[in-house]
């Protein structure tokens, strides 16, 4: 009897075992309504059904706030992977909401912030986030193992991405994936001096590349168009484009060490030049009052506006051909001349995405990050579908279709919202170089931006001490003083008052503890030169 009982339950045991083994695989929902493309991709990248992730994006201006699946391309990402992220956007430029969540121990699953945000050091060093190495070893050996994962990118990318610290526990591990890594320096150009094309032609297209020529050009605009503002500046983050026009770099590198840039003699000359323009009504009198110049730009009330050239794309779409902003040769201070250089974005990239140790589903998080960073994920999210939205050219180039180029040029925001393409580009990696545009405006912008660019990595990587340290406190106070000094010198009643403001500011910075901060900068800058090389080839 016992023997028969044992034999009789064997089919049940076999059924249970088979059911258990089957349940270990991701459950695949009905694919009848999916496109052939999605079905094929799903076979490679499916993670599991109904996987949810919270994703904090530390970019306060991030415009893509609709639900993930409302964007067609991102809906396909969910169909392919089974993962649906819910994004939350920073409310300010200081990631205050993220800091509060750190304090309350309630971090989101994924965290995206700028690559040089001091919070990265805190998140890593204080054990708030996983390393990608750890999660791949634990969850992704059968999905994309570490060897395969690292084979996707150049050694230089991993060198630029790996977390470097004096703490051996973390040194060299991957804690975040950087977006918009640039293998070529010529691709990081971004800043241009831009003027209204029709007004520039009306005043005779003068040479505005010298101090005298720039001044005279603005004077001509004021005389011919008294209701127009000859020059305005974007928000404070861009003020230093005028400093760099005079040869002032983010830090003043001397034989004695790295100093605060206001100590560079050319800083004074740059600000006194701007003060002259302001005093004569050539610089927008509301430049420090009204940070949003969008309506004035779109209504044609500003002539010259130095900024990243792509920031004017939507404005140019409104102004139309013949009236748009075009890049001209940049202003060069008399002392710097043709050696003028403007910092591009860092070759290391723009943002980095980390996975928190409060993640509700670490397996889904690491696999989702790997998919988004993969060539397949990049092509879909950043370019759409081959033949419909883009074509591959040769082995290393990609070109958007003429229809897509026309739609993007006509209304980029509308195109992105309707397709989802490029809306979640925070895992971007250059598997292909884009075929250069033949649009004469874009060709001119890129040429001007690229000719005078330098890689600013040595001036940005870990050059800001942790906010939790004494040096971090000194740093925030010193830069706060700088942010007051810039407009203070420009609007000063007299040139002497501007000079006095600079002297007073340096004295106050020294009192705050600037010398200790400069020691820190010198030490870190020297490490950066060894790690990333001298951007000026010295």
Provide tags for this entry.
2 domains, three-stranded antiparallel sheet, D-Maltodextrin-Binding Protein, domain 2, disordered N terminus, five-stranded mixed sheet, alpha/beta, 12% strand, 538 residues, 17 strands
Strand order of the largest sheet: 2-1-3-13-4
Unreliable sequence segments: 1-25
Using the coordinates shown, work out and report the CATH topology of the largest domain.
D-Maltodextrin-Binding Protein, domain 2
The total beta strand count reads 17
Strand content bin = 5-15%
- Write out the CATH superfamily name of the largest domain: Periplasmic binding protein-like II
Write a brief caption for the model.
The chain has 538 residues and is of the alpha/beta class. The chain folds into two domains: 36-184 and 350-432, D-Maltodextrin-Binding Protein, domain 2 (3-Layer(aba) Sandwich); 191-343 and 462-532, Periplasmic binding protein-like II (D-Maltodextrin-Binding Protein, domain 2, 3-Layer(aba) Sandwich). It is built from 23 helices and 17 strands.
Overview of the molecule:
This protein has 538 residues and is of the alpha/beta class. The protein has two domains: 36-184 and 350-432, D-Maltodextrin-Binding Protein, domain 2 (3-Layer(aba) Sandwich), CATH 3.40.190.10; 191-343 and 462-532, D-Maltodextrin-Binding Protein, domain 2. It has helices spanning 2-23, 36-45, 72-81, 96-103, 119-125, 132-139, 146-151, 155-161, 197-202, 211-224, 240-245, 265-279, 294-298, 313-319, 362-373, 375-383, 402-410, 412-419, 440-451, 457-460, 470-490, 495-512, 514-532, and strands at 51-57, 83-89, 110-114, 177-178, 191-196, 229-231, 251-254, 257-260, 302-304, 307-308, 325-328, 342-343, 351-355, 390-393, 397-400, 433-434, 453-454. A five-stranded mixed beta sheet has the order 2-1-3-13-4. A three-stranded antiparallel beta sheet has the order 10-5-11. The protein has a three-stranded mixed beta sheet with strand order 14-15-16. 38% of the residues are buried. Mean pLDDT is 91; it is low at 1-25.
């Amino acid at each position: 009897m016992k023997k028969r009982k044992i034999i009789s339950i064997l089919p049940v045991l076999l059924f249970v075992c088979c059911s258990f083994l089957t349940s270990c695989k991701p459950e695949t929902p009905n694919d009848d309504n999916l496109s052939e493309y999605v079905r094929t991709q799903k076979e490679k990248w499916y993670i599991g059904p109904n996987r949810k992730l919270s994703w904090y994006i530390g970019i306060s201006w991030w415009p893509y706030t609709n639900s993930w699946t409302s964007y067609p391309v991102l809906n396909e990402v969910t169909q392919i992977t089974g993962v649906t992220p819910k994004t939350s956007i920073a409310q300010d430029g200081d990631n205050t909401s993220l800091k509060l969540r750190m304090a309350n121990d309630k971090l989101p699953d994924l965290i995206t912030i700028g690559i040089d945000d001091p919070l990265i050091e805190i998140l890593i060093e204080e054990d708030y986030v996983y390393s990608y190495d750890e999660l791949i070893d634990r969850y992704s050996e059968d999905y994309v193992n570490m060897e395969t994962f690292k084979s996707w990118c150049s050694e230089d990318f991993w060198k630029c991405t790996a977390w470097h610290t004096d703490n051996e526990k973390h040194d060299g591990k991957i804690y975040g994936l950087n977006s918009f890594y640039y293998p070529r320096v010529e691709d990081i150009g971004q800043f241009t001096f831009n003027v209204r094309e029709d007004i520039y032609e009306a005043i005779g297209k003068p040479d505005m590349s010298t101090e005298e020529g720039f001044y005279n050009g603005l004077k001509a605009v004021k005389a011919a168009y008294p209701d127009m503002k000859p020059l305005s500046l974007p928000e404070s983050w861009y003020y230093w484009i005028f400093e760099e026009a005079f040869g002032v770099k983010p830090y003043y590198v001397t034989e004695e060490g790295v100093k605060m840039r206001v100590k560079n003699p050319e800083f004074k000359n740059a600000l006194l030049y701007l003060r002259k323009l302001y005093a004569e009504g050539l610089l927008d009198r509301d430049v420090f009052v009204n940070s949003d110049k969008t309506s004035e730009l779109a209504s044609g009330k500003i002539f010259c506006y130095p900024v990243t050239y792509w920031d004017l794309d939507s404005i140019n779409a409104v102004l139309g051909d013949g009236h748009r902003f075009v890049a001209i040769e940049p202003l060069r201070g008399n002392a710097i001349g043709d050696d003028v250089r403007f910092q591009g974005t860092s070759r290391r990239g723009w943002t980095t995405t980390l996975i928190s140790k409060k993640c509700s589903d670490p397996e889904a998080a690491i696999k989702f990050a790997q998919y988004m960073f993969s060539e397949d994920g990049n092509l879909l999210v950043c370019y759409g579908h081959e033949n419909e939205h883009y074509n591959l050219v040769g082995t290393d180039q990609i070109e958007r279709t003429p229809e897509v180029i026309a739609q993007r040029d006509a209304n980029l925001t509308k195109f992105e919202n309707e397709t989802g393409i490029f809306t979640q580009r925070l895992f971007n990696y250059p598997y292909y170089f884009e075929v250069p545009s033949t649009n004469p405006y874009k060709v001119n912008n890129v040429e001007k931006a690229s000719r005078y660019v330098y890689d600013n990595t040595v001036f940005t990587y870990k050059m800001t001490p942790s906010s939790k340290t004494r040096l971090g406190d000194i740093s925030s106070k010193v830069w706060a003083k700088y942010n007051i000094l810039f407009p203070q010198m420009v609007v000063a009643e007299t040139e002497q008052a501007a000079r006095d403001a600079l002297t007073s500011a340096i004295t106050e910075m020294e009192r705050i503890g600037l010398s200790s901060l400069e020691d820190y900068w010198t030490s870190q800058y020297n490490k950066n030169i060894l790690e990333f090389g001298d951007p000026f080839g010295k």
